[in-house]
Amino acid sequence: MREIIIGILASMFFAVTFILNRSMELSGGSWIWSSSLRFIFMLPFFILIVLIRKNMKIIFHEIKNHPFQWMIWSFFGFVLFYAPITYAAAYGPGWLVAGSWQLTIVAGTLLAPLFVQVTVTEHGLIKHRQKIPLASLSISLIILLGVLLIQLQHAGTLTFQDLLVGILPVTVAAFAYPLGNRKMMEVCGGRLDTFQRILGMTLCSLPFWLALAIYGVIRIGPPSNTQITQSLIVAICSGVIATTLFFIATDRVRHHQEKLASVEATQSTQIIFVLIGEILILSSPMPNGLATFGLVLVMLGMLFHSFYSKRLSTIQTKQKLLA
C-alpha cells in the first residue's frame, strides 16, 4: 500500500513532463532539446546527492563489472523511453501522449517471462522463469479501458498521421521503460540504492544525449531561454523527484511480480494530473461524460490494485509466520 502511494506521488510529478513538453512544442521549441536537456540537467543533481551520501565509488565499480548491461539497459530505460515521448509530443496533444503511455501498465506485466526468479530450497538454488500475474493484468486492463474512454473525447479531432506519430513512438517507450528499469534492478541486485542507480543510468545514457544536443545545435540552433527554463523544471519535477520516487517504489517490491505490477499501474494516474494541468495551463476543454466515466474506471482500478497488493502482503506475512 505504501509503495502504491509513492507511485501515485511519482505520477503527479511525471505529469509535468507531458504538459510542459507540449507547451514547449506549441511555443516553437524542439523535441530534441526537450529530451536531451532533461537528462543533462538531471546529472548535476544526482552527482551532488550521491557525493553528499559519500557512495560514488561503488557506481563506477558496478559499471566496470557489467559495462554492456549498464549501457544497453540504460539505453532502454532512459533513451528509448524519453526520446520517443518527446518526439510524440511534437505532433500530438499531451492527453494523447499521456494516454498512450498508459500501455506501460500492461507492458510491464507482460514482460514478466523475460525475468528469472531464484528460489532457495533445501536442495539448493532453483531458477525458474516468472509468470505473468493474471490477476494484476486483469486489473490493469480495467485501468487501460478507462484511459481509452478518456481519449475518445478528443479522438474525432485526430488525423491518421496524428495517431501514427502520437501513439507508435509512445508504444515503444511504454515497453522500453519498465524493461530497462527491471533489468537494471536485476543487474544491480540490491547493491546500489535508488540515487546511485539513477546516476549510473544517467551517466551511461549521457553519450546519446550529448550527441543529440550536438545534432540539435547543427540542425535547429541552440534552445530558447524559455525552453531551457521549462526543461529545467521538467528535469527537477520528473527527472529527479518523480524518477526517484518511482524507482524507490519498484525497488521495494522488485521480487514480487504482482506488487510490482500494482506499483507500475500507478502511472495510470498521470492522465488525471495531465488533464487537470492542461485545463488550467493550456485551456483544454473539460472532460465529457464518457471521459468522466473513464476517470472513474482508472481510480477504481487503482483501488483494486491497492486492495490486491494489501491482501498479498497479508498472505505473505501469514506464510512467514507459519514457516
From TrEMBL:
<feature type="transmembrane region" description="Helical">
    <location>
        <begin position="5"/>
        <end position="24"/>
    </location>
</feature>
<feature type="transmembrane region" description="Helical">
    <location>
        <begin position="72"/>
        <end position="92"/>
    </location>
</feature>
<feature type="transmembrane region" description="Helical">
    <location>
        <begin position="132"/>
        <end position="152"/>
    </location>
</feature>
<protein>
    <submittedName>
        <fullName>Multidrug resistance efflux transporter family protein</fullName>
    </submittedName>
</protein>
<feature type="transmembrane region" description="Helical">
    <location>
        <begin position="30"/>
        <end position="52"/>
    </location>
</feature>
<keyword id="KW-1133">Transmembrane helix</keyword>
<dbReference type="Pfam" id="PF13536">
    <property type="entry name" value="EmrE"/>
</dbReference>
<feature type="transmembrane region" description="Helical">
    <location>
        <begin position="198"/>
        <end position="218"/>
    </location>
</feature>
<feature type="transmembrane region" description="Helical">
    <location>
        <begin position="230"/>
        <end position="249"/>
    </location>
</feature>
<dbReference type="InterPro" id="IPR032713">
    <property type="entry name" value="EmrE"/>
</dbReference>
<keyword id="KW-0812">Transmembrane</keyword>
<feature type="transmembrane region" description="Helical">
    <location>
        <begin position="98"/>
        <end position="120"/>
    </location>
</feature>
<feature type="transmembrane region" description="Helical">
    <location>
        <begin position="158"/>
        <end position="177"/>
    </location>
</feature>
<feature type="transmembrane region" description="Helical">
    <location>
        <begin position="289"/>
        <end position="308"/>
    </location>
</feature>
<keyword id="KW-0472">Membrane</keyword>
<feature type="transmembrane region" description="Helical">
    <location>
        <begin position="261"/>
        <end position="283"/>
    </location>
</feature>
